[in-house]
Protein backbone atom coordinates (compact mmCIF):
# COMPACT_ATOMS: atom_id res chain seq x y z
CA UNK A 1 0.00 0.00 0.00
CA UNK A 2 2.97 2.33 0.40
CA UNK A 3 3.02 2.59 -3.40
CA UNK A 4 -0.13 4.71 -3.12
CA UNK A 5 1.57 7.12 -0.73
CA UNK A 6 4.94 7.62 -2.45
CA UNK A 7 3.66 9.24 -5.69
CA UNK A 8 1.56 11.68 -3.63
CA UNK A 9 4.58 12.43 -1.46
CA UNK A 10 6.56 13.13 -4.62
CA UNK A 11 3.88 15.55 -5.78
CA UNK A 12 4.01 17.24 -2.38
CA UNK A 13 7.79 17.75 -2.73
CA UNK A 14 7.23 19.43 -6.11
CA UNK A 15 4.43 21.48 -4.56
CA UNK A 16 6.82 22.66 -1.86
CA UNK A 17 9.36 23.79 -4.45
CA UNK A 18 6.76 25.51 -6.64
CA UNK A 19 4.51 27.13 -4.07
CA UNK A 20 4.99 26.38 -0.39
CA UNK A 21 8.66 27.46 -0.21
CA UNK A 22 7.59 30.99 -1.11
CA UNK A 23 5.10 31.47 1.69
CA UNK A 24 6.01 28.86 4.30
CA UNK A 25 4.23 26.07 6.08
CA UNK A 26 1.97 28.10 8.37
CA UNK A 27 -0.63 28.97 5.73
CA UNK A 28 -3.99 27.38 4.81
CA UNK A 29 -2.43 25.60 1.84
CA UNK A 30 0.75 24.56 3.63
CA UNK A 31 -0.99 23.16 6.70
CA UNK A 32 -3.60 21.39 4.59
CA UNK A 33 -0.99 19.53 2.51
CA UNK A 34 0.97 18.39 5.58
CA UNK A 35 -2.15 17.25 7.46
CA UNK A 36 -3.48 15.38 4.43
CA UNK A 37 -0.15 13.61 3.97
CA UNK A 38 -0.28 12.46 7.61
CA UNK A 39 -3.85 11.30 7.13
CA UNK A 40 -2.99 9.41 3.93
CA UNK A 41 0.12 7.81 5.42
CA UNK A 42 -1.76 6.54 8.47
CA UNK A 43 -4.59 5.26 6.28
CA UNK A 44 -2.46 3.20 3.87
CA UNK A 45 -0.78 1.58 6.90
CA UNK A 46 -4.12 0.43 8.30
CA UNK A 47 -6.23 -0.63 5.32
CA UNK A 48 -6.89 -4.31 4.72
CA UNK A 49 -5.62 -5.01 1.19
CA UNK A 50 -7.95 -8.02 1.03
CA UNK A 51 -10.94 -5.70 1.35
CA UNK A 52 -12.07 -4.17 -1.93
CA UNK A 53 -13.91 -1.44 -0.06
CA UNK A 54 -10.89 -0.38 1.98
CA UNK A 55 -8.58 -0.63 -1.01
CA UNK A 56 -10.92 1.61 -3.00
CA UNK A 57 -11.03 4.06 -0.08
CA UNK A 58 -7.24 4.30 0.03
CA UNK A 59 -7.09 4.86 -3.73
CA UNK A 60 -9.84 7.46 -3.51
CA UNK A 61 -8.04 9.29 -0.75
CA UNK A 62 -4.70 9.27 -2.59
CA UNK A 63 -6.39 10.58 -5.73
CA UNK A 64 -8.13 13.36 -3.81
CA UNK A 65 -4.91 14.57 -2.17
CA UNK A 66 -3.07 14.39 -5.51
CA UNK A 67 -5.83 16.40 -7.23
CA UNK A 68 -5.71 18.98 -4.46
CA UNK A 69 -1.92 19.38 -4.81
CA UNK A 70 -2.07 19.67 -8.60
CA UNK A 71 -4.85 22.27 -8.47
CA UNK A 72 -2.95 24.21 -5.81
CA UNK A 73 0.27 24.22 -7.86
CA UNK A 74 -1.47 25.29 -11.07
CA UNK A 75 -3.23 28.10 -9.19
CA UNK A 76 0.05 29.21 -7.60
CA UNK A 77 1.84 29.31 -10.96
CA UNK A 78 -1.04 31.24 -12.53
CA UNK A 79 -1.05 33.78 -9.70
CA UNK A 80 2.73 34.20 -9.95
CA UNK A 81 2.39 34.81 -13.69
CA UNK A 82 -0.35 37.41 -13.26
CA UNK A 83 1.66 39.09 -10.49
CA UNK A 84 4.67 39.43 -12.79
CA UNK A 85 2.49 40.77 -15.58
CA UNK A 86 0.95 43.41 -13.31
CA UNK A 87 4.23 44.27 -11.58
CA UNK A 88 2.96 43.30 -8.12
CA UNK A 89 4.21 40.79 -5.59
CA UNK A 90 2.32 37.53 -5.26
CA UNK A 91 3.27 37.29 -1.59
CA UNK A 92 3.33 40.41 0.59
CA UNK A 93 5.61 40.44 3.64
CA UNK A 94 5.96 44.21 3.84
CA UNK A 95 3.14 45.26 6.14
CA UNK A 96 2.93 46.92 9.52
CA UNK A 97 0.97 45.61 12.49
CA UNK A 98 -0.90 47.73 15.03
CA UNK A 99 -1.79 46.33 18.44
CA UNK A 100 -5.47 46.61 19.34
CA UNK A 101 -6.08 47.89 22.86
CA UNK A 102 -8.84 46.36 25.03
CA UNK A 103 -11.61 48.75 24.03
CA UNK A 104 -15.05 48.71 25.58
CA UNK A 105 -16.49 46.65 22.73
CA UNK A 106 -13.74 44.04 23.02
CA UNK A 107 -14.17 43.79 26.79
CA UNK A 108 -17.93 43.45 26.29
CA UNK A 109 -17.52 40.51 23.88
CA UNK A 110 -15.05 38.90 26.30
CA UNK A 111 -17.56 39.31 29.11
CA UNK A 112 -20.33 37.74 27.00
CA UNK A 113 -18.01 34.83 26.14
CA UNK A 114 -17.18 34.30 29.81
CA UNK A 115 -20.88 34.35 30.75
CA UNK A 116 -21.75 31.82 28.02
CA UNK A 117 -18.87 29.56 29.08
CA UNK A 118 -19.68 29.70 32.80
CA UNK A 119 -23.39 29.20 32.14
CA UNK A 120 -22.64 26.16 30.00
CA UNK A 121 -20.48 24.40 32.61
CA UNK A 122 -22.97 25.37 35.31
CA UNK A 123 -25.75 23.74 33.31
CA UNK A 124 -23.62 20.64 32.67
CA UNK A 125 -22.79 20.48 36.37
CA UNK A 126 -19.11 19.57 36.11
CA UNK A 127 -15.86 19.95 34.20
CA UNK A 128 -14.83 16.61 32.70
CA UNK A 129 -11.17 17.65 32.77
CA UNK A 130 -11.09 18.60 36.44
CA UNK A 131 -13.08 15.53 37.47
CA UNK A 132 -10.65 13.39 35.49
CA UNK A 133 -7.66 15.13 37.06
CA UNK A 134 -9.08 14.65 40.53
CA UNK A 135 -9.71 10.98 39.79
CA UNK A 136 -6.14 10.45 38.62
CA UNK A 137 -4.77 12.14 41.74
CA UNK A 138 -7.05 10.06 43.99
CA UNK A 139 -6.18 6.82 42.22
CA UNK A 140 -9.76 6.30 41.04
CA UNK A 141 -9.82 7.33 37.35
CA UNK A 142 -13.17 8.76 36.25
CA UNK A 143 -15.05 7.64 33.17
CA UNK A 144 -14.02 10.63 31.08
CA UNK A 145 -15.48 9.21 27.87
CA UNK A 146 -19.01 9.22 29.27
CA UNK A 147 -18.52 12.53 31.07
CA UNK A 148 -17.30 14.12 27.88
CA UNK A 149 -20.16 12.72 25.83
CA UNK A 150 -22.80 13.76 28.38
CA UNK A 151 -21.45 17.32 28.33
CA UNK A 152 -22.27 17.83 24.66
CA UNK A 153 -24.67 15.03 23.65
CA UNK A 154 -26.46 14.00 26.79
CA UNK A 155 -30.17 13.85 27.51
CA UNK A 156 -30.16 17.58 28.25
CA UNK A 157 -29.02 19.24 25.01
CA UNK A 158 -27.06 22.41 25.74
CA UNK A 159 -26.24 23.70 22.25
CA UNK A 160 -22.52 22.77 22.23
CA UNK A 161 -22.02 23.92 18.62
CA UNK A 162 -23.15 27.41 19.58
CA UNK A 163 -21.23 27.44 22.88
CA UNK A 164 -18.02 26.29 21.20
CA UNK A 165 -17.92 29.52 19.20
CA UNK A 166 -17.46 31.47 22.43
CA UNK A 167 -15.63 28.88 24.54
CA UNK A 168 -13.12 27.56 22.00
CA UNK A 169 -12.67 30.46 19.57
CA UNK A 170 -13.84 33.95 20.55
CA UNK A 171 -12.74 33.92 24.21
CA UNK A 172 -9.19 32.57 23.67
CA UNK A 173 -8.71 34.66 20.50
CA UNK A 174 -9.64 37.93 22.18
CA UNK A 175 -7.58 36.90 25.22
CA UNK A 176 -4.59 36.60 22.89
CA UNK A 177 -5.26 40.06 21.43
CA UNK A 178 -5.58 41.64 24.89
CA UNK A 179 -2.55 39.76 26.29
CA UNK A 180 -0.29 40.83 23.42
CA UNK A 181 -1.27 44.47 23.99
CA UNK A 182 -1.04 44.22 27.79
CA UNK A 183 2.42 42.67 27.94
CA UNK A 184 3.69 45.10 25.28
CA UNK A 185 2.15 48.40 26.41
CA UNK A 186 -0.12 47.84 29.39
CA UNK A 187 0.55 48.31 33.06
CA UNK A 188 0.52 45.90 35.97
CA UNK A 189 -3.27 45.79 36.24
CA UNK A 190 -3.67 45.04 32.52
CA UNK A 191 -1.08 42.26 32.70
CA UNK A 192 -2.71 40.72 35.76
CA UNK A 193 -6.08 40.78 34.04
CA UNK A 194 -4.61 39.18 30.93
CA UNK A 195 -3.02 36.43 33.02
CA UNK A 196 -6.40 35.72 34.61
CA UNK A 197 -8.02 35.57 31.16
CA UNK A 198 -5.34 33.15 29.96
CA UNK A 199 -6.07 30.81 32.87
CA UNK A 200 -9.81 31.07 32.29
CA UNK A 201 -9.41 30.40 28.56
CA UNK A 202 -7.26 27.33 29.22
CA UNK A 203 -9.85 25.99 31.67
CA UNK A 204 -12.61 26.59 29.10
CA UNK A 205 -10.67 24.85 26.31
CA UNK A 206 -9.92 21.81 28.47
CA UNK A 207 -13.20 21.76 30.38
CA UNK A 208 -15.02 19.18 28.27
CA UNK A 209 -12.08 16.76 28.42
CA UNK A 210 -11.02 17.19 24.80
CA UNK A 211 -7.53 18.08 23.64
CA UNK A 212 -8.48 19.05 20.11
CA UNK A 213 -9.71 22.56 20.90
CA UNK A 214 -6.57 23.33 22.91
CA UNK A 215 -4.25 22.05 20.17
CA UNK A 216 -6.12 24.06 17.53
CA UNK A 217 -5.82 27.26 19.52
CA UNK A 218 -2.15 26.73 20.40
CA UNK A 219 -1.48 26.29 16.68
CA UNK A 220 -3.51 29.46 16.03
CA UNK A 221 -1.33 31.36 18.51
CA UNK A 222 1.83 30.15 16.71
CA UNK A 223 0.41 31.17 13.31
CA UNK A 224 -0.52 34.56 14.79
CA UNK A 225 3.07 35.09 15.95
CA UNK A 226 4.25 34.10 12.46
CA UNK A 227 1.91 36.60 10.79
CA UNK A 228 2.63 39.35 13.33
CA UNK A 229 6.33 38.99 12.53
CA UNK A 230 5.55 39.36 8.79
CA UNK A 231 5.65 35.70 7.78
CA UNK A 232 8.62 34.62 9.86
CA UNK A 233 8.69 32.85 13.21
CA UNK A 234 9.87 35.04 16.10
CA UNK A 235 11.24 33.78 19.37
CA UNK A 236 7.89 34.57 20.96
CA UNK A 237 6.38 31.69 18.97
CA UNK A 238 7.98 29.35 21.52
CA UNK A 239 5.64 30.66 24.25
CA UNK A 240 2.49 28.80 23.08
CA UNK A 241 4.53 25.59 22.98
CA UNK A 242 6.16 26.12 26.37
CA UNK A 243 2.85 27.05 28.00
CA UNK A 244 0.58 24.72 26.05
CA UNK A 245 2.51 21.48 25.66
CA UNK A 246 2.39 20.64 29.41
CA UNK A 247 -1.39 21.20 29.30
CA UNK A 248 -1.75 18.91 26.29
CA UNK A 249 0.32 16.25 28.06
CA UNK A 250 -1.74 16.68 31.22
CA UNK A 251 -5.00 16.42 29.30
CA UNK A 252 -3.75 13.23 27.62
CA UNK A 253 -2.86 11.78 31.00
CA UNK A 254 -6.25 12.73 32.44
CA UNK A 255 -8.05 11.08 29.52
CA UNK A 256 -6.20 7.82 30.33
CA UNK A 257 -7.27 6.17 27.07
CA UNK A 258 -4.52 3.56 26.88
CA UNK A 259 -4.98 0.22 28.62
CA UNK A 260 -1.31 -0.54 29.22
CA UNK A 261 -1.02 -0.27 32.99
CA UNK A 262 2.65 -1.37 32.93
CA UNK A 263 3.66 1.65 30.86
CA UNK A 264 5.12 4.69 32.54
CA UNK A 265 2.80 7.72 32.44
CA UNK A 266 5.18 9.66 30.16
CA UNK A 267 5.49 6.78 27.70
CA UNK A 268 1.74 6.20 27.69
CA UNK A 269 1.06 9.90 27.07
CA UNK A 270 3.62 10.07 24.25
CA UNK A 271 2.23 6.93 22.60
CA UNK A 272 -1.30 8.29 22.87
CA UNK A 273 -0.32 11.56 21.20
CA UNK A 274 1.42 9.71 18.35
CA UNK A 275 -1.67 7.52 17.87
CA UNK A 276 -3.75 10.66 17.67
CA UNK A 277 -1.80 11.86 14.63
CA UNK A 278 -1.20 8.64 12.68
CA UNK A 279 -3.81 6.13 13.87
CA UNK A 280 -7.02 7.34 15.51
CA UNK A 281 -8.48 9.57 12.78
CA UNK A 282 -7.27 7.17 10.10
CA UNK A 283 -8.90 4.14 11.74
CA UNK A 284 -12.10 6.13 12.22
CA UNK A 285 -12.04 7.14 8.54
CA UNK A 286 -11.71 3.52 7.41
CA UNK A 287 -14.54 2.37 9.68
CA UNK A 288 -16.67 5.24 8.40
CA UNK A 289 -16.11 4.38 4.75
CA UNK A 290 -16.95 0.72 5.39
CA UNK A 291 -20.24 1.95 6.83
CA UNK A 292 -21.14 4.70 4.34
CA UNK A 293 -20.22 2.61 1.29
CA UNK A 294 -23.30 0.48 2.05
CA UNK A 295 -25.57 3.55 2.13
CA UNK A 296 -26.98 5.62 -0.74
CA UNK A 297 -25.28 8.89 -1.63
CA UNK A 298 -26.84 11.71 0.40
CA UNK A 299 -26.49 14.43 -2.26
CA UNK A 300 -25.38 16.92 0.35
CA UNK A 301 -28.11 16.07 2.86
CA UNK A 302 -25.73 15.01 5.63
CA UNK A 303 -23.68 18.19 5.20
CA UNK A 304 -26.88 20.22 5.50
CA UNK A 305 -27.60 18.54 8.82
CA UNK A 306 -24.06 19.40 9.88
CA UNK A 307 -24.59 23.05 8.95
CA UNK A 308 -27.70 23.18 11.12
CA UNK A 309 -25.78 21.76 14.11
CA UNK A 310 -24.20 25.16 14.79
CA UNK A 311 -27.64 26.65 15.46
CA UNK A 312 -29.09 26.42 18.97
CA UNK A 313 -31.61 23.62 19.32
CA UNK A 314 -30.40 21.44 16.44
CA UNK A 315 -28.36 18.31 17.15
CA UNK A 316 -27.11 17.99 13.59
CA UNK A 317 -25.92 14.79 11.91
CA UNK A 318 -25.76 11.52 13.88
CA UNK A 319 -23.39 9.86 11.39
CA UNK A 320 -20.37 9.82 13.71
CA UNK A 321 -22.37 8.11 16.45
CA UNK A 322 -23.73 5.54 13.98
CA UNK A 323 -20.18 4.72 12.84
CA UNK A 324 -19.02 4.43 16.45
CA UNK A 325 -21.78 1.90 17.04
CA UNK A 326 -20.55 -0.31 14.18
CA UNK A 327 -17.11 -0.49 15.83
CA UNK A 328 -17.89 -0.56 19.58
CA UNK A 329 -21.60 -1.56 19.67
CA UNK A 330 -22.39 1.58 21.59
CA UNK A 331 -23.49 5.09 20.71
CA UNK A 332 -21.53 6.56 23.63
CA UNK A 333 -18.88 8.05 21.40
CA UNK A 334 -18.11 9.37 17.93
CA UNK A 335 -16.06 8.10 14.98
CA UNK A 336 -16.18 10.73 12.24
CA UNK A 337 -15.43 9.99 8.60
CA UNK A 338 -12.39 11.54 6.97
CA UNK A 339 -12.90 14.73 4.99
CA UNK A 340 -12.69 12.83 1.70
CA UNK A 341 -14.89 10.03 2.99
CA UNK A 342 -17.51 12.56 4.03
CA UNK A 343 -17.38 14.27 0.63
CA UNK A 344 -17.74 10.90 -1.12
CA UNK A 345 -20.75 9.98 1.03
CA UNK A 346 -22.43 13.31 0.30
CA UNK A 347 -21.45 13.95 -3.33
CA UNK A 348 -20.12 10.64 -4.74
CA UNK A 349 -16.88 10.26 -6.71
CA UNK A 350 -17.57 13.04 -9.21
CA UNK A 351 -18.28 15.46 -6.38
CA UNK A 352 -15.07 14.43 -4.64
CA UNK A 353 -13.02 15.15 -7.78
CA UNK A 354 -14.63 18.56 -8.20
CA UNK A 355 -14.30 19.54 -4.53
CA UNK A 356 -10.68 18.33 -4.26
CA UNK A 357 -9.72 20.62 -7.14
CA UNK A 358 -11.87 23.44 -5.77
CA UNK A 359 -10.21 23.13 -2.36
CA UNK A 360 -6.78 23.37 -4.02
CA UNK A 361 -7.75 26.52 -5.89
CA UNK A 362 -9.52 28.16 -2.93
CA UNK A 363 -6.88 27.54 -0.27
CA UNK A 364 -4.10 28.65 -2.60
CA UNK A 365 -5.95 31.90 -3.35
CA UNK A 366 -6.66 32.41 0.36
CA UNK A 367 -2.99 31.82 1.13
CA UNK A 368 -1.76 34.43 -1.32
CA UNK A 369 -4.56 36.99 -1.10
CA UNK A 370 -5.30 37.12 2.64
CA UNK A 371 -2.42 39.54 3.35
CA UNK A 372 -2.38 42.15 0.58
CA UNK A 373 -2.65 45.40 2.53
CA UNK A 374 0.13 47.49 4.01
CA UNK A 375 -1.42 47.76 7.48
CA UNK A 376 -3.08 45.21 9.74
CA UNK A 377 -4.05 45.12 13.38
CA UNK A 378 -3.76 42.28 15.86
CA UNK A 379 -7.51 41.56 15.74
CA UNK A 380 -7.38 41.02 11.98
CA UNK A 381 -4.31 38.79 12.28
CA UNK A 382 -5.81 36.57 14.97
CA UNK A 383 -8.84 36.11 12.71
CA UNK A 384 -6.63 35.20 9.73
CA UNK A 385 -4.57 32.86 11.93
CA UNK A 386 -7.70 31.07 13.15
CA UNK A 387 -9.04 30.64 9.62
CA UNK A 388 -5.64 29.29 8.55
CA UNK A 389 -5.60 26.63 11.25
CA UNK A 390 -9.27 25.65 11.03
CA UNK A 391 -9.13 25.07 7.27
CA UNK A 392 -5.56 23.79 7.17
CA UNK A 393 -6.18 21.06 9.75
CA UNK A 394 -9.53 19.91 8.36
CA UNK A 395 -8.91 16.18 7.98
CA UNK A 396 -12.04 14.61 9.48
CA UNK A 397 -15.76 15.21 9.46
CA UNK A 398 -18.02 17.11 7.13
CA UNK A 399 -18.84 20.79 6.83
CA UNK A 400 -19.73 20.93 10.53
CA UNK A 401 -16.10 20.37 11.53
CA UNK A 402 -14.69 23.81 10.58
CA UNK A 403 -17.89 25.45 11.79
CA UNK A 404 -17.71 23.81 15.21
CA UNK A 405 -14.00 24.59 15.51
CA UNK A 406 -14.77 28.27 14.97
CA UNK A 407 -14.51 29.20 11.29
CA UNK A 408 -17.41 31.66 11.40
CA UNK A 409 -16.11 33.22 14.62
CA UNK A 410 -12.65 33.77 13.18
CA UNK A 411 -14.16 35.23 10.00
CA UNK A 412 -16.10 37.61 12.23
CA UNK A 413 -12.93 38.65 14.10
CA UNK A 414 -11.15 39.26 10.78
CA UNK A 415 -14.04 41.41 9.56
CA UNK A 416 -14.31 43.25 12.90
CA UNK A 417 -10.59 44.03 12.87
CA UNK A 418 -10.87 45.28 9.30
CA UNK A 419 -13.72 47.63 10.21
CA UNK A 420 -11.77 48.86 13.21
CA UNK A 421 -8.70 49.52 11.08
CA UNK A 422 -10.82 51.17 8.40
CA UNK A 423 -12.36 53.59 10.92
CA UNK A 424 -8.91 54.49 12.25
CA UNK A 425 -7.53 55.11 8.76
CA UNK A 426 -10.58 57.23 7.94
CA UNK A 427 -10.16 59.23 11.17
CA UNK A 428 -6.45 59.74 10.46
CA UNK A 429 -7.18 60.91 6.92
CA UNK A 430 -9.86 63.31 8.14
CA UNK A 431 -7.49 64.67 10.81
CA UNK A 432 -4.80 65.23 8.19
CA UNK A 433 -7.26 67.13 5.99
CA UNK A 434 -8.39 69.27 8.91
CA UNK A 435 -4.79 70.08 9.80
CA UNK A 436 -4.03 70.96 6.20
CA UNK A 437 -6.98 73.36 5.88
CA UNK A 438 -6.07 75.04 9.17
CA UNK A 439 -2.65 75.94 7.73
CA UNK A 440 -3.51 77.36 4.29
CA UNK A 441 -0.16 78.99 3.69
CA UNK A 442 2.01 75.93 4.40
CA UNK A 443 3.47 74.18 1.39
CA UNK A 444 2.91 70.40 1.78
CA UNK A 445 5.92 68.17 2.35
CA UNK A 446 7.25 66.42 -0.75
CA UNK A 447 6.70 62.76 -1.54
CA UNK A 448 9.81 61.19 -0.05
CA UNK A 449 9.28 57.97 -2.00
CA UNK A 450 9.88 59.70 -5.33
CA UNK A 451 13.42 60.24 -6.68
CA UNK A 452 14.73 63.79 -6.58
CA UNK A 453 12.69 64.91 -3.61
CA UNK A 454 13.87 65.72 -0.12
CA UNK A 455 15.23 62.92 2.01
CA UNK A 456 13.24 61.37 4.81
CA UNK A 457 12.88 63.69 7.77
CA UNK A 458 13.31 66.91 5.76
CA UNK A 459 10.43 69.34 5.57
CA UNK A 460 9.86 72.05 2.98
CA UNK A 461 7.63 74.97 3.92
CA UNK A 462 7.09 78.52 2.76
CA UNK A 463 4.52 81.20 2.27
CA UNK A 464 2.76 82.48 -0.80
Radius of gyration: 25 Å
Structural class given helices, strands, pairing?
A: mainly alpha
Q: What is the number of E strands?
A: 2
Shape type: globular
Count of alpha and pi helical runs: 17
Q: Could you tell me the strand content as a percent range? A: under 5%
List low-pLDDT spans. Answer: 431-464
Strands in their spatial order, largest beta sheet: 1-2
What level of helicity do the residues show?
over 70%
- Secondary-structure element series: HHHEHHHHHHHHHHHEHHH
Task: Describe what you observe in this structure.
The protein is mainly α and 464 residues long. It contains 17 helices and two strands. It has a two-stranded parallel sheet. Helix 4 (104-124) crosses helix 7. The longest helix has 35 residues, at 52-86. It is globular. Keywords: Membrane, Transmembrane, Transmembrane helix. The chain crosses the membrane at residues 56-78, 99-123, 157-181, 188-206, 212-229, 236-256, 343-366, 378-397, 403-421. This is Oligosaccharide repeat unit polymerase.
